Amino acid sequence: MTDEQKLFSEFKPGTAADWAARTQKDLRETPLESLNWHTYEGITIKPYYTREDIQHLPFVQQKPGDFPFVRGNTGSDNNWQNIQKIKALGNGKPAIDKAVDALNRGADGVLFIVEDPQTFDIAYLTEQIDLTSQSVSYTLNGDPADFLKGLYTLLSKQNISHRNLRGFANYDPMSGKGQLSDDENKIIAQVLDLTKDSPDFYGVTVCGTNFSSIGASLTQEVAYTLSAAVAYTDRLTTAGEPLGSVLRNMLFCMGAGTNYFFEIAKLRALRLLWAAVVEAYQADPALAAKLRIHSTTSSWYQTTLDPYVNMLRVTTEAMSAVLSGADSLTVLPFDSTFKDSDEFSERIARNVSIILKEESYLDKAVDPAAGSYYLESLTNELATNAWELFKEVEAQGGFEAAYENGFILSSITEVSRQKFRDIAQGRMVLVGTNKYPNPKEQIDFDPEELIQRAEFDTTRAAYPTEVMRMATELHLRKRKRRPRAIIAVIGQAAKRHINASFAKEFFSCAGFETDIQQYDDVETAVTRLLHAAAEVVVVSTSEATYAREFGPRISQHESKPTIIMADDPQHMKDELVAHGYDEFIFEDCDMSTILELVQKRLDRDENNGGKH
């Protein structure tokens, strides 16, 4: 076979028009556009993509290691560092010992969360860990310059070259609070001066996780991370730091969420746009390749309920991060939302990355997304939207000005509220929390204490649903039984059974004991239910006469249950409320109002000592 010959040349390549014609034929009268779906990123996703969607994209033909580094900054492999996060209290010796054990059991590096940099025992650290061969990083809320000065001074006394240090210093007041004081600017300049001759140790960190952890869209996460990085660059170069030194020391900490393909496209788009920023500074294009990206699995999608599902979440999140070319990765333990992680959960988290490398061989393929019509198109669209938002921020005077005038936080809040609404309506699924609950789950922590704990993350996606579940758990512990919801189905219509099943899953997710009961008529239902022990009675019926008749009669129940109709009454809502119904549950309704209503009922019962 000659080079010009092609396999299966008798088959005509399918064009976008061919796909559209065939799809429309299958859809018949349904418009093709009905298959599109719209994302929080402002991107419309088509049902299929073809070669025509990527033929004009300039980066498609570029190889790994080529500018603008969409496919990563190396052409040899896709290796990443498996970094374990470890909290270091006091002198940090127990944390250092834990780090030694982690490094011996598969971790490629550690990230210490240093609570008190002044008391952290640097000498003990250098005794236990070879800092020139192991990647050791530090999250420092205090003065990182003093901490690093102590480290560099000690290394000098021990005749250890600081040039061989590996890791990064995580200190990012800019993205955390939206501005940089003069003192903080001086501190970061000092960190930069210390680390500029340590080529594998990064001193200027921008945490995109400050945006993703409060529900930002991926477009916002990329745009605001870039904008904060530019703000740091401008501040430091104005203070006299060389541009090349600032760009060489830049590291982005990014979250990896559950939107698998979008997360793959996110880091590719980030590298593409960072190269554009470097180019705009008229700096050496090779400096764009120096950018290091550290990914961590998302805290926003972690759940307290059915926490073992978090093991599955972090696996797909980790996969998307490494497939998109993250330089290092931290996998959060599955129980980190509600307690200090133990040896088991930390080992499982560490082994996720190890399995992806040692058993799945994801380190062997550079940019597996290359050539995918969908992922290449998605990378371009995400980059385009993020760049437009970035320019909008710059037009307002840059990151600090846009943060101060409220633009950045208000835009994130708008997106996060939509996400919370979608979770409340069941459109966004959190497995084990708002769908597919584990009815036999045993909660082995004090829910009341957890909710009141200062470090309990109330910004997470699952939090509103979890609060309801905690209320039912307290009810169980105080009254030795779960609150009960009876779903009364009156009649035989299929629609009623659909609404009833939806209501049953909702209350199961809220931790209720649920029971569907079938009745042929209102009289039988009222007779059976009037004395039944239940905190909630859900009525699934669509006939107006049944609806008007049932509510007033069941409201005479001695324990005064919350009465909910499993249907959307539309124009009859006011009338049905007047007839005794408290709320209405159906697909796409706002679950948060029902959660609030039922939680108030449970709180009232507890305050009354269980009396109705």
Automatic annotation (TrEMBL):
**Protein name listed in UniProt:** Heterodimeric methylmalonyl-CoA mutase small subunit
Keywords for this protein? Cobalamin, Cobalt, Isomerase
For the keyword Isomerase, the answer is yes
One protein family per Pfam: MM_CoA_mutase
Ranges for domain Methylmalonyl-CoA mutase alpha/beta chain catalytic: 121-448
Q: Which family does it belong to?
A: Belongs to the methylmalonyl-CoA mutase family.
Name the source's superkingdom: Bacteria
Q: Which cofactor does it need?
A: adenosylcob(III)alamin
Q: What is a single molecular function from GO for this protein?
A: intramolecular transferase activity
**Which first-to-last residue range defines the signal peptide?**
none
